Amino acid sequence: MRTFYLAALNYTLQKPTFTRAPTTIMKSIKYLVLACVLILSFIQCKSTKSLQTNPAIDELKTIMTGSFSSIEQSQTDSTYYNISLHMYPIWTASDKHYLYVEQALFSKQESPYRQRVYELIQVENGVIESKVYTLENEKDFVNKWSSPEFFEDFDDSLLREREGCSVFLKRISANHYEGSTDGVSCLSSLRGAAYASSVVSIKTNLISSWDQGFDLKGEQVWGATEGPYIFKRLD
Q1: Which residues pair with 67 in a beta bridge?
Q2: Mind listing the pLDDT tens digit for each residue in 77-97?
Q3: DSSP secondary structure, 157-201, as one string
Q4: Which of 82, 122, 163, 223 would be 212's cystine partner, CB 3.0–4.6 Å?
Q5: Partners of residue 160 on adjacent β-strands
Q6: pTM of the predicted structure, to 2 decimals
Q7: Strands (E), the chain
């Protein structure tokens, strides 16, 4: 009996203790679950942020999107040409807001005289900056306003910003924005100019744009002299 008792006592003293194990395991599980919750929350937050919309930018982009023409103005005033203006969103999966822009004589759609990309950025309450970019190898993108998915094979690394040429647009009322470039910041060498300016008004079915170039003396060397071009929506 004494031998049995000592053997049993010896077994009890040598047997591993598991009383703390469940507590340790539960804590580990708790921390793991908490970590997973935090990671998922971060991912969801980031995803939600990237998908968030900006009502003002969405409104402006909507009224800018489409095809326009100055044909009516050219028919009543021969000093104005019939110009086509096409603006369509590109890279729509991006969290940025880009539009591809083409202007051409209406009779020469295959040879646009201006190709740009605009990026819309909210800079302060009620004011949206429209950054202006040129395109690398722009001839590759002629008439691609009609198939903006073509841009999906490229990214914004092909853009070259025209620094100082942003147009700052202020919301006047629903579906109505007006703005201009900032002073003499938009440098230009076209036809002897030193700088260019743009004054713009955008409404649902009408866009007026007055682009002018000035030399160092402040004298106009290109652009309309009597007033803006008036583009009316075609589509």
Answers
A1: 86
A2: 999 999 999 999 999 999 999
A3: GGEEE-TT--EEEEEEETTEEEEE--TT-EE--GGG-SEEEEEEE
A4: 223
A5: 134
A6: 0.78
A7: 66-69, 83-90, 98-105, 114-124, 127-135, 159-161, 167-173, 176-180, 186-187, 195-203, 206-214, 220-223, 229-233
